[in-house]
Design goal:
It is a single chain. Helices cover about 20% and strands about 40% of the residues. With about 375 residues, the chain is of the alpha+beta class. It has five domains: about 25 residues, no CATH class; about 110 residues, no CATH class; about 100 residues, Alpha-Beta Plaits (2-Layer Sandwich); about 45 residues; about 55 residues, Beta Barrel (OB fold (Dihydrolipoamide Acetyltransferase, E2P)). Strand 3 and strand 4 form a beta hairpin. Helix 4 crosses helix 5. The structure holds zinc ion (2 copies).
């Protein structure tokens, strides 16, 4: 912009001054003050449990950040100050503060100070516009909502794992517990992601879970590991004063009665359960080792589990002549004849076979 020396200031009439938009420097600055709301005081809410910071409407979870609390506070108060400043023109800003990491959680320290210096030069022949002010950073050490939820034992949902007509096996309990722990590690310290209480017992797993979303994710994960069915039940917990009803959700994973490896009686034959999914079961006959795929419900409705009635044994395949084989029981060295088709496929003379005795009859499994 050209200077217009020799003319009058439109407001004060001063002559021989540098004019910008027909105004001398003093009048121009009066007409165009820096638009900033000077923050004299800023309240910093910091959770003494999790360190969550709240300044104006900004919430910061320090556990999700790499910087130190000192750096985080510095960042958030600086941007709070600048959020009150509007300028079309480029400006410089300098900050200075006395925030110290080791004083942040110190109850004796009630506040820090932040000095802000904003410089703006809209016209190079004027001296710069300057604003220089101090903001008192009031420290409020509190407990945030999420932490107070946790402390008060708040939870929205229950996760249950049960099995139909049986207890859970140690293997199942271990697998589910591990997978829950692994998932919880992935959530890390994410807000409101916690399990208040988890019981792992042969009757099943019961956990109080902070949120419905978390409980539903955990339930889905366990369901994916099994042929279990997932169901959801709502229970009215309380009615708030305004009439809103608060429900507690229970996410139940129900494991099938039968699982892989079970020995069952079905349609008068003895079978080993090879695989189970949502609606099918694959069985291997221990009479001739052929396999069948059957609708799960049919098996569940009429099969009987025999696991508890088996006397487990090891055998030696001694010799074969046509369809007749000689087998020796390894526990008492007794020899007896049997039929080749009753042995697992691909067994050769000399190999050992795992199996069991049931109602005085030997069965060869693998
Ligand atoms: Zn003037
Ligand atoms: Zn907290």
């Amino acid at each position: 912009m050209m200077s217009e020396r020799g003319r009058f200031c439109a407001i004060c009439g001063a002559m021989d001054e540098v004019l910008l938009e027909n105004l001398c420097e003093i009048c121009y600055k009066k007409e165009h003050p820096l638009e900033i709301e000077l923050l004299k005081k800023l309240s910093i809410q910091i959770c003494i449990d999790c360190g969550e910071l709240r300044v104006l409407s900004t919430r910061i979870d320090p556990r999700a950040q790499e910087e130190s609390l000192e750096e985080l506070i510095r960042e958030v108060v600086r941007s709070a100050v600048l959020s009150k400043f509007r300028s079309e023109d480029p400006y410089d800003v300098e900050f200075e503060d006395d925030i110290k990491n080791d004083k942040i959680m110190n109850y004796g320290v009630k506040e820090f100070k932040l000095r802000t210096k904003i410089t703006l030069q809209p016209y190079e022949e004027f001296s710069p516009f300057e604003k220089n002010f101090i903001t008192r950073l009031k420290m409020n050490r509190t407990i945030c909502n999420d932490c107070s939820h946790y402390k008060s034992g708040y939870f929205e949902a229950i996760l249950q794992v049960r099995a139909d007509k049986r207890k859970l096996t140690d293997d199942e309990l271990n697998r589910f517990e591990n997978s829950i722990n692994t998932m919880m590690k992935q959530y890390g310290d994410a807000k409101l992601s916690y399990i208040l209480n988890m019981e792992v017992e042969p009757d099943g797993i019961t956990a109080q879970v902070s949120t419905k979303l978390l409980a539903s994710n955990l339930a889905r994960e366990i369901q994916a590991l099994t042929a279990g069915k997932l169901s959801l039940a709502y229970e009215l917990k309380t009615t708030k004063r305004d009439g809103t009803e608060v429900y507690q959700n229970t996410y139940l994973v129900r494991l099938p009665e039968f699982s892989k490896g079970d020995v069952i009686e079905y349609e008068k034959d003895i079978w080993k359960l090879k695989a189970i999914n949502d609606d099918q079961i694959r069985l291997e006959s221990l009479t001739n080792h052929t396999e069948r795929q059957i609708v799960r419900k049919r098996v569940e409705n009429s099969a009987k589990k025999l696991n508890d009635f088996l006397f487990h044994r090891e055998y030696m395949f001694v010799s074969a002549e046509g369809q007749t084989v000689v087998i020796m029981a390894m526990d008492n060295y007794e020899n007896f004849d049997d039929n080749l088709e009753r042995l697992p496929k691909n067994k050769e003379v000399g190999s050992t076979i795992k199996g069991f005795l049931l109602d005085d009859k030997n069965y060869y499994v693998e």
